[in-house]
Fold this protein.
Amino acid sequence: MDYIVKHGNRTRDNYKYDKDLDIDCIEPDNNLQHILKGKGYRLVHNDFLSFTTYKQYDLVVMNPPFSNEDKHLLKALELQKNGGNIICILNAETIRNPFSNTRKLLMEKLEEYQANIFFLSGEFEQAERRTSVEIAVVKVAIPSQKRESRIFTELKQKHYADNSIEDSTELSVNDFVKATVKRYEVEVEAGIQLIQEYRAMKPYILSSVKEERYSKPLIEIRVKGHTDFTINDYVKQVRKKYWTTLFEDERFVKGMTSNFREDYRSKVQKLSEYDFSLFNIYSIQLDMSKHMVRGIEECIIKLFDELTHQYSYNEYSKNTHYFNGWTTNKCWIINKKVVLPFFKAWNFLDKFSPTDIYIEQKLADMEKALDYLNGSVSDTTILYGRLREAELMGRTKKIPLKYFTVTFFKKGTCHIEFTNLELLKKLNIFGAQNKHWLPPSYGKKTYQEMNPEEQQVIDDFEGKESNKWTAPLEQSSTGVVGLLR
């Protein structure tokens, strides 16, 4: 015992005051019992084989009597079966000569737990009770057993006829929503059952056996740190958890810009007043679709403005091509190459870090805006993967993304070069039309059908190239939705 305490960076003198070192002792010899007590050690029993307890131990260290040491070690294995460690000294013959059924059972258990056994000679020749017997030191580490909740298991069996889709990541949005609602229902019902069972148990787990006015339960359940909660308080917190999860899952918010996502995430507190049900989720999806068109158009116009006049000074003046428009002479479109500020791709340690959340989010929003014009949806993990690859390789120039390449400079600028010129044209047309810089007939008439005033604007904008956009833009009378058809 002295050795164990000493090598735990503690001394025998301060052991009795050390609450972190919780040691129980079992000793059959009366004289040794008195010595242990005199040194301040806690003696809890005199016979390990008859010892019973509900206490759980991290480690059992034992030097049992050689006469029945096999039974002692089997008892220790049983004591630690739910997880824990054992260090035991045995007579080497117990391991080398398992002639009895008890020893055979012991060897099976040691093999099952993959015990580490090594043999030593002459270790007790200088002991108080000298012996030259060869010993075996057995070390066993039993992993903690994972227990399944009985309440949760029963409810899963009730709610899930087919468990195969429960945790699948390869689900359609509709299947994903249904699976998430199922998980919510199971969790809420399980929590309610736990609370009800706890409240029924409270009279039996009070701090005093006697019925006292101020006696409190030894075990407490809290909701947001409070013990005086209602079941409705618990349900509200679970709702909030699942509404938050829904708006953070890429399958549900795929295609939404960061501003659009944040707008709905900010409503989670209010949504926690509503049940996490298919009806409410589908109602939100309907509301999202109604606002999506306006959000899409705002996103595209914002991108158009950012890539043109917002940074149309100094170095960024080359971003735009100016032309005389339909209602004003101060008109512009985006060039193939664009320079944007505020892209600090080097962190405070001067390490190239294009996966910075601001940069990634900004580029993702640009891709989404172009996706809308292209009639497609991007996987944001691909964007992150390419930025991460560039980060690992130290590649700062012409990093290929979906519609453009990006080049980062330490002064904080980002050079964007469009690789999909057809899509760039769509972006320019959409931006110019929304600002009424193009004739109302653009996209509805061929160049030859336009009057001279209209042709003059178109010549400055693109010339007879407008013929190729007649059909697509005839479909765009409803705005961006038409472009996406």
In short: Residues 301-483 form one domain. Residues 278-307 form the longest helix (30 residues).
